[in-house]
Design a protein that fits this description.
Strand content: 25-35%
Strand order of the largest sheet: 5-4-3-10-6-7-8-9
Distance between the termini: 6 Å
Mean pLDDT: 88
Number of strands: 10
Order of helices and strands: EEHHEEEEEHEHEHE
């Protein structure tokens, strides 16, 4: 079982480290969402809003990390984005959940890095120029206009796992290779340089919804 580190806490097999942790915060005093019953209850009460639900496994890891990170002030918004890279690129494997309303507001196709795999992503990296996706928890940052149009910067919160996201220019942006037409012609999505690229038609709505300090979690079973 792989361990990641966050704030000196073990969290259901995850252990995260976030820089600039205030000295007055003592992780051992923090309340944690540790009960599997609570997770299952939240999952069962999630309003699918006509979308497909995420898998319980990815939802469970995302939910526990979201509450632990939010408690420490790393997020301002009550939106949780889950990307499940255990799934084929042919299915909608990105979910955005409005945690205040317990409702899914987006379910979308999303690309992985070109060196992470073909239809399925199975290799991940935090290194510059690896052209691979990085797993784990992120805080969304600011919006800017880049070569792909409106784009959203991401700050990786896991040391050695995704904390080079800014340096690597790992961002959310729209791409024409993330579309049903591309799927028809290639039997899989196109691939990015490591960014979680989304359909052009949804990119603006997605970016505007989750920008400015919301939680993004990229899941794969290898991180548990």
């Amino acid at each position: 079982m792989k361990l990641l580190t966050f704030l000196g806490l073990t969290l259901s097999g995850l252990f995260f480290i976030v820089p600039n942790l205030p000295k007055e915060i003592h992780p051992e005093k923090s309340a944690m969402v540790s009960s599997s019953n609570k997770v299952v209850s939240a999952y069962n009460n999630l309003n699918a809003n006509h979308f497909q639900l995420p898998n319980l496994e990815s939802f469970s890891e995302a939910l526990k990390g979201f509450y632990s990170l939010k408690e420490r002030g790393f997020f301002r918004k009550d939106f949780l984005t889950i990307i499940d890279f255990s799934l084929s690129s042919r299915v909608k494997r990105l979910w955005i959940i409005d945690m205040a309303q317990n409702k899914i507001v987006f379910n979308s196709l999303v690309a992985h890095g070109k060196n992470s795999g073909e239809d399925y992503a199975n290799q991940f990296s935090n290194k510059n120029e690896s052209n691979k996706s990085s797993l784990g928890f992120y805080a969304t940052g600011e919006v800017y206009q880049g070569k792909h149009g409106l784009s959203l910067k991401l700050d990786g919160l896991e040391k050695g796992v995704n904390d080079n996201a800014r340096q690597r220019a790992i961002v959310i942006h729209g791409a024409d290779y993330v579309s049903d037409n591309f799927l028809k012609n290639h039997s899989r999505l196109g691939k990015s340089h490591g960014c979680p690229a989304v359909p052009i038609g949804l990119s603006k709505k997605i970016i505007e919804t989750i920008k400015d300090k919301s939680c993004l979690f990229i899941y794969h079973p290898t991180i548990i």
